Amino acid sequence: TSFLDGGDTVRISGGVGPLPMVEVWADIYGDETDTSFDISGGGTGVGVSDVFNNQVDIAMMGREPEGEEVDQGLFAVPMLIDTVVGTVNADNPVIDELQENGLSRADMEAIFTKEVDTWGEVVDADVDEEITVYGRSDASAAYKQWGDFLGGEDDAYSENELENLSDGNHNGDQQVAEAIAGNENAISLNNINYVYDLESGELEGDVRPIPLDRDGDGELSEEEDFYETRDEFLAAVEAGQYPAPPAREMFLASNGDFDEDAREFVEWVLSDGQEFVRDNGYVPLEDDRLEEAQDNLAEGP
Amino acid sequence: MDRYTEQRLFSALARGAAALVVAVMILVVAVTIFRGGRVFLTDPAIAITPPGSRYMLEGDGGFLHAVLGSIFIVGPATVVSAVLAVSTAMYLQSDYSSERFSDAVNMFLNVLWGTPPIVYGVFVLTVIIAIGARTSLFFGIVAIAIFQYPIMTRYTDEALRSAPDAVRETTYGLGATRFETAVMTVRAALPGVIAGIIMGFARGIGDAATVLFTAGRSTNMPGGPFQGATTLPVLIFDQAMSFNAEVRSHAYAASFVLIVAVLSLIIVSKLLAGRYARYAPGGRHS
Amino acid sequence: MAETTESRSDGRLGRRLLTERLSSHWLRGAGYFAIGLFVLIVLTLLYQSLPLLSEYSLVQMLTSSNWDPAQNEFGFLPAIVGTIYVTILTMAMGTPIAILAAIYIAEYAEGRAKTLVSSFIDVLAAIPSVIFGLVALIVVVPFVGDYLAPAVGSSATGLGIFTVSLVMAIVVTPFMISLSVESLEALPDELRESSLGVGATQWETIRIVLLRAAGPGIFSAVLLGFGRVFGATIVPAMLIGGQTHLPSSPFATGQTLPTLIVNDFGELMSLPLTQSALIFVGLMLVIVVWLFNFGAMLLRQRLQQRWQF
Amino acid sequence: MTTNAALTTENLAVTYVGDREVDALKGVSLEFPMNQLTAIIGPSGCGKSTLLKSLNRLHEIQPHAEVSGDVHLGEQSVYNTDDPVPEIRKQIGYVPQTPTALPLSIYENVAYGVKIHGEYDSKEELDDLVETYLRKVNLWEEVKDRLDTPGAELSTGQIQRLCLARSLAVEPDVLLCDEVTSALDPISAESVEETLESLKEEYTIIMVTHSMDQAKRLADEVVFLYLGELVEANDTRSFFENPQHERTREFVKGHTAVEYTESGGVSTTESATADR
Amino acid sequence: MTTNAALTTENLAVTYVGDREVDALKGVSLEFPMNQLTAIIGPSGCGKSTLLKSLNRLHEIQPHAEVSGDVHLGEQSVYNTDDPVPEIRKQIGYVPQTPTALPLSIYENVAYGVKIHGEYDSKEELDDLVETYLRKVNLWEEVKDRLDTPGAELSTGQIQRLCLARSLAVEPDVLLCDEVTSALDPISAESVEETLESLKEEYTIIMVTHSMDQAKRLADEVVFLYLGELVEANDTRSFFENPQHERTREFVKGHTAVEYTESGGVSTTESATADR
Ligand SMILES: Nc1ncnc2c1ncn2[C@@H]1O[C@H](COP(=O)(O)OP(=O)(O)OP(=O)(O)O)[C@@H](O)[C@H]1O
Ligand SMILES: Nc1ncnc2c1ncn2[C@@H]1O[C@H](COP(=O)(O)OP(=O)(O)OP(=O)(O)O)[C@@H](O)[C@H]1O
Ligand SMILES: [Mg+2]
Ligand SMILES: [Mg+2]
Ligand SMILES: O=P([O-])([O-])[O-]
């Protein structure tokens, strides 16, 4: 590193999905070791692009690196598991039906691809409010995962397709949540940390998750209903009751091997750091997966 | 339509248009002042409190980093740009360059003047990547300085042109060198020159597009010239989109700070210009 | 005595001449800086655009509406159309109002009202556009979304081309007003007296005589306003809704060339062509500004000739 | 010599209430006889232009001008009337000091007033009008081949005649001219003077001039103002040969003296002894 | 009467090569006698200002001025010299037509030239110099209590005298004055004339003027230019009483005639019969 790249501050950018966790980690680790951090969001794509352009030391990724990225030298290790969930306004005209019966993947696909226009059609009720679909305009991994989810088994919608099908796209998770909070007829998707209150883990704002009717039988069974609190949700994710996608592993990545300071931080994340994960609304890696990650890191690219 | 009806109609329209513009402006300022002022005045410390480590998520701490970022970026940029602009404008005067040359340069300046600031941002970022550097306060300064340069040069050039020829004849007639004369011409045109520099400063301090990609959009306190930084407009842009109502309310407080800064700048410039206008040759008579 | 004077001023003369020489080198450098900067910017942008330009046909990119960098689809048409849409709508809303308001200030207003309104507008021309964007988020967006768009039978979120245009009109109007007022006020009173003296009404005087005589100046004002709208970045980025498709109505969301850069610049630079494509957008912006300036210069010269007084 | 008045002022006073108050005209009552040329003279700042402009309310375009008294055009009041001001100005034309072409072609410059008032029926009639008035000011021959070029491209002297033609084309009863030759070189000035000379048979002309000599050459009547007050008004011959007031005498003499000294010749007139 | 020349020109010619080429001065050879006041006269555009400025190379600040020939200050060539131009201009001062205060205080205005040349040792010496020269132009009494107020706040006439003081303070041998009274009202003009009158004993003054009368009153020598050529140069009395050239006669007469006619008096001088 030369003086031109800002010396010993560890710079991190990328997906806003893992952003809150990484900020907590950096906070704690920074206090312990006197390392300084500069962390910003921008979306997973930005993080990848930034490490390639040597703008940051670490990219936060909300998805697996793609083959093309690995070919160019991207080196990624998993750090935790997060998930994305469909969201609506708390005063949605059909909120009761949604919370009662949830929506199936096919329902959501119809909504997000605009095959269905009104809430009435969705739940078969006498409600003719039009649905407003919001998407993400930044390079969002969450959005990409959502496209993979919506497409079903072997199919996927690209971010771009989704963007163009929506009624408006917002630059980041928080902005989407805000838009949902401000529009009773809106639907979108959020990383769950933008749905449940960060501190309490309860549903406090105007945003509500849409329960997923996994088997598509038109109602929520006992094991499909876990949206009351964040902890409940996370437990379900950990138990595999929520599908992946939209649940997914998230990664920390660099261009080639990590620089020294960065590497020490990642090592810490993969050891001591894991204990903070649950408290902050994410699912920690399973033990063998964690070991694998630690070996990976030690080995290098 | 009867010509007198037409006359009445259009003077009413003109009045209406002016009233509309003024009303809209009052609305904008009032919203900023009230919403921002309320937030700011209940807790003025947020402008001088450094951001917490999760500022953008939770709004803990204040936005001192952006206030300082604005000062550390726009201040030096204005100085650099003003020096360059005044020098260029001096060179464009007839003692140094031919009319054809200054016409040509003026054409380039016009294009630069009209170039969208985002292009400067892209340009500087491209350079940053090419030389293997990282976005930082320093490159924010570079981008803003490039952005301000054509603005200041045009104002300064105009001001120098309007300085009476007799000033130049006088100083030359006393045996002054070209440079001594040029300095005196700048003094003679000082109110205009200052106005141009302040104009550049005001545009620079309000612009977000140039620093968006170049200064690093950092959420930390500026740590040095080659550390990331942010400025108030960029921060407001980021804050405005926040889910956290507290962060969003900070956007209004930051706007309030920004508006107050810009307005005081303009007032200061008017006062300064007025002071020097006393000395302007022919000022009293024309 | 005479000798000391001599040597004293000799040393001083040497120093003065040295300053003169050094300063003239410096000033020459500064003089060429403007050209150098422009050339450097254009060359850099051009060089970085080459990978894209060598890969795809320019015409095809400019006319294709499929923008999907991940699939190597680079259709600039949506952003170009969005930019044109925003620019035209903004100017259509802003120009008449700016000119009328300028007429009011320069020709109708008197005394205190005049000083008040004109200094108010001067000051407002300097307010950062991000603040207009911010205020628009709580005032204009709900207004357009809840009332205006439904009223014309279009469902919308309040974000979109119309909202951007409305806000940009507010941003550039004070700017255009100040410049137009300047050129109207620079006109000699004799023009007004000549016209009124044959029995013209004040409006006829303004419409037939003053607007022509100040035409080149007002034209420049509008042009500068146009430039600011055309290259506006922050307000559209906050309000346009960021969708790269051909807008179907004025209330639709969209993308402008600058917002395309803002929204996509950070991402996918791992794919070299995306970077190249976005830098090419920058190049397009510069070229359009260039062409416009050139055209405007010619037009202004002709106006000046036809409408001299 | 017809002496019935085309225009009369009654105690006409104008005050500019700006930063400081200036009583530019302090109650002037005057008669301007019909079909004669009246010259208004007086030292700089005495209110000549103010008087002239207040005759057709043109001073109203200046901010803060306050008027009292009245002006009558024949029987009709200029100030206490329901007629819109433009109608009054149509009857009382005004030619400004600086030769000013409107930003229109030569043709359109002359046609301007006529078109505004809509006082023509056909293009031919308008063409005729333009030609008539350009001839009347002796400009037709010089411009007939370039009627559609910008008026501003004429020489200053030609523009001043163009201004006259423009004012005449709306057929005013009275023509107000403010130092119309002062911006011109001697040759152009002469040709404008000739034009005025030929016009005064048909129109009532009121002219401000700073040149005693021009007044002598052109005017039938002379009005002398001093510090906003009317000092003396008389027919030209009596005015110069036999001034009634001390001030008039001094002014006429002073002017002659200054110009005399400048000319540097040796002279035998009494004014030669006046001090500068 | 000393007749040794302070300044001589040899076939001095100036061409402006701009869009169109103008031969403003077509080879003029002249001698300007020491400690005398020489007036340059001639019709507008004949090259008076060009001649004056080319005497200290001031026209060089205009783009595209080309010079041939030479000027000598005493023995020293003005053009073919290694001396830097500012040194020459220090010896040959120039006072522009428009009275112009530099954007400095009154004191600094006078001290400006002295300061840039560094020709003083102490603040006291500078104070003395300023006072001396302000006295020399009869301005001291009027400004001594406000030396640190902006020069621009003086009246036009005072500023013109300030300009003279400023030029004199660098102690030039020759002083070039371009129509220095033309922008002034008669009272101020008179006081500047008086100043010039008193200066001409110590300095060689070369003055452009458009007023015959001023030339007669002030000048020892008169130079008459016409279309860039020297027509006649002579001492003032001979020049006016006995002009050698037809052109000079016409010019002097013409001027008198025009001004005479303006003055409108009845006269017995031969010029009165001249046509306008
Ligand atoms: N718009 C104005 N506001 C304030 N004062 C004015 C205005 N116009 C003229 N004056 C003042 O009114 C007085 C008369 O002015 P006016 O122009 O009528 O004089 P004038 O005789 O035409 O002078 P001149 O020969 O210089 O043209 C002057 O003292 C002048 O300063
Ligand atoms: N910078 C210039 N470029 C081109 N032509 C010039 C320039 N300066 C003067 N001229 C021309 O040179 C000729 C002589 O000009 P100059 O100013 O010397 O005349 P002058 O006798 O001083 O006239 P005036 O009495 O009007 O001041 C004129 O035809 C003028 O148009
Ligand atoms: Mg007047
Ligand atoms: Mg001259
Ligand atoms: O976590 P993302 O911002 O890439 O969705």
List its salient traits.
heteropentamer; B: 286 residues; mainly alpha; MetI-like fold; 12 helices; globular; C: 309 residues; two-stranded antiparallel sheet; 13 helices; 77% helix; binds adenosine-5'-triphosphate; binds magnesium ion; binds phosphate ion
Task: Please give the structural blueprint.
The complex is a heteropentamer, with one copy of chain A (301 residues), one copy of chain B (286 residues), one copy of chain C (309 residues) and two copies of chain D (276 residues).
Chain A: E1 10-14, H1 19-33, E2 37-42, H2 44-52, E3 58-61, H3 67-71, E4 74-82, E5 84-89, H4 95-101, H5 105-112, H6 119-123, E6 132-136, H7 141-151, H8 159-165, E7 168-170, H9 173-181, E8 186-191, E9 207-209, H10 230-238, E10 248-255, H11 260-269, H12 287-299
Parallel strand pairs in A: 1-2, 1-3, 6-7, 6-8
Antiparallel strand pairs in A: 3-10, 4-10, 5-8, 5-9
Chain B: H1 3-42, H2 55-58, H3 64-92, H4 99-114, H5 117-130, H6 137-162, H7 165-173, H8 178-188, H9 190-206, H10 209-212, H11 232-240, H12 245-277
Chain C: H1 2-55, H2 58-63, E1 67-68, E2 73-74, H3 77-108, H4 111-124, H5 129-138, H6 140-151, H7 161-185, H8 189-197, H9 202-213, H10 215-230, H11 234-239, H12 257-264, H13 272-306
Antiparallel strand pairs in C: 1-2
Helix pairs in contact in C: 1-13, 3-7, 3-10, 3-12, 4-7, 5-7, 7-10, 8-9, 10-13, 12-13
The structure holds adenosine-5'-triphosphate (ATP) (2 copies), magnesium ion (2 copies) and phosphate ion (PO4).
Q: Number of domains in the coordinates of chain C?
A: 1
* Side-by-side strand order of the widest sheet of chain D: 6-7-8-3-9-10
Number of strands of chain D: 10
Number of helices of chain D: 10
Protein name (chain B): Binding-protein-dependent transport system inner membrane protein
Domain ABC transmembrane type-1 (chain B): 67-269
Family (chain B): Belongs to the binding-protein-dependent transport system permease family.
Main location (chain B): membrane
Question: Can you walk through the features of this model?
Answer:
The complex is a heteropentamer, with 1 copy of chain A (301 residues), 1 copy of chain B (286 residues), 1 copy of chain C (309 residues) and 2 copies of chain D (276 residues). Chain B is mostly helical and 286 residues long. Chain B has one domain: Orthogonal Bundle (MetI-like fold). Helices cover 74% and strands 0% of the residues of chain B. In chain B, helix 1 (3-42) crosses helix 12 (245-277) and helix 3 (64-92) packs antiparallel against helix 9 (190-206). By secondary structure, chain C is mainly alpha-helical. Chain C has a single domain (77-306), classed as Orthogonal Bundle (MetI-like fold), CATH 1.10.3720.10. Helix content of chain C is 77%, strand content 1%. Chain C contains 13 helices and 2 strands, in the order H-H-E-E-H-H-H-H-H-H-H-H-H-H-H. Chain C has helices at 2-55, 58-63, 77-108, 111-124, 129-138, 140-151, 161-185, 189-197, 202-213, 215-230, 234-239, 257-264, 272-306, and strands spanning 67-68, 73-74. In chain C, strand 1 and strand 2 form a beta hairpin. Chain C is globular. The relative contact order of chain C is 0.13. Chain D has one domain: P-loop containing nucleotide triphosphate hydrolases (Rossmann fold, 3-Layer(aba) Sandwich). Chain D has 276 residues and is of the alpha/beta class. Chain D contains 10 helices and 10 strands. In chain D, helix 4 packs across helix 6. Chains B and C meet through helix 1, helix 3, helix 4, helix 5 and helix 6 of B and helix 1, helix 3, helix 4, helix 5 and helix 7 of C. One adenosine-5'-triphosphate is lined by residues 16, 18, 22, 24, 42, 44-50, 62, 210 of chain E. Chain B: InterPro entries: MetI-like (IPR000515), MetI-like_sf (IPR035906), Phosphate_transprt_permease (IPR051408). Chain B: Residues 67-269 form the ABC transmembrane type-1 domain.
